[in-house]
C-alpha cells in the first residue's frame, strides 16, 4: 500500500498542459455533481463518461487548491452571476494542470438557476506564476487556522491592491475572458 501511495504522490508532481485550442466543458447540477462533460474533459482528466457522471466536480480538484477560492466561486454563482477563476486540477492518473475557468449559472424561463456550466482553457504561465504563491498562502492559513481567516486574508490582500476578486481576475488574466462555442450552443447542452 505504501508503494502505491508513493507512486501516486510522484505522479501528482507531473504537470500536463492543455493544447491552446482545447476547451474543457462541464455542467453540474445545483449541488455540483457532474451531469455533462465534453470529450476534452474526459480526455484531459483520464475518465470514462460512466466514471464521472453524477460525481461531485471536486473529483478533479487538486489537493493544493485553497477551499477559500471555492467558497468565493459558490457565493457568486449561487447568486446567479458568472465568475472567472484560476484552478489547479488533478487528473485520474494523478497529473495536474492549471486552467482559466469561466463558470456561468444556467437559468430557466423564470430566471431560476437550474445548473452551472463551466468552460476552461489552459491558464497562461504568467498567470500561474502570480497565482500559485497566493494559493499557497491561502492553503497554509486554512491548514493552520481556518477558511474564514484565509478569506479575510484574501480580502485584505485584494483591498491593498484596490480590487475585489472579479477585478483581480480581470487584472491577472489581462481581461482574457474567452468566448467559447458553448456560449452559442448552450441550449443543446441544457437538453
What would you note in describing this structure?
The chain has about 190 residues and is an alpha+beta fold. The protein is about 45% helix and about 20% strand. It has 9 helices and 5 strands, in the order H-E-E-H-H-H-E-E-E-H-H-H-H-H. It has a 5-stranded antiparallel sheet. Helix 4 crosses helix 6 and helix 5 packs across helix 6. The chain starts with a helix and ends with a helix.
What would a concise description of this structure say?
The chain is α+β, with helices and mostly antiparallel strands. It has helices spanning 2-12, 39-45, 49-52, 67-77, 125-144, 147-160, 165-172, 181-184, 186-189, and strands at residues 24-28, 34-37, 83-90, 96-107, 113-122. It has a five-stranded antiparallel beta sheet with strand order 2-1-5-4-3.
Supply the key terms.
43% helix; globular; 191 residues; alpha+beta
Secondary structure: elements and pairs:
Elements: H1 2-12, E1 24-28, E2 34-37, H2 39-45, H3 49-52, H4 67-77, E3 83-90, E4 96-107, E5 113-122, H5 125-144, H6 147-160, H7 165-172, H8 181-184, H9 186-189
What fraction of residues sit in β-strands? 15-25%
Helix/sheet category: alpha+beta
Using DSSP, what is the number of strands?
5
Overall, the morphology is globular
Q: Helical residue percent?
A: 40-55%
**Average pLDDT across residues?**
86
Q: How are the strands of the biggest sheet laid out side by side? A: 2-1-5-4-3
* Unreliable residue runs: 1-10, 179-191
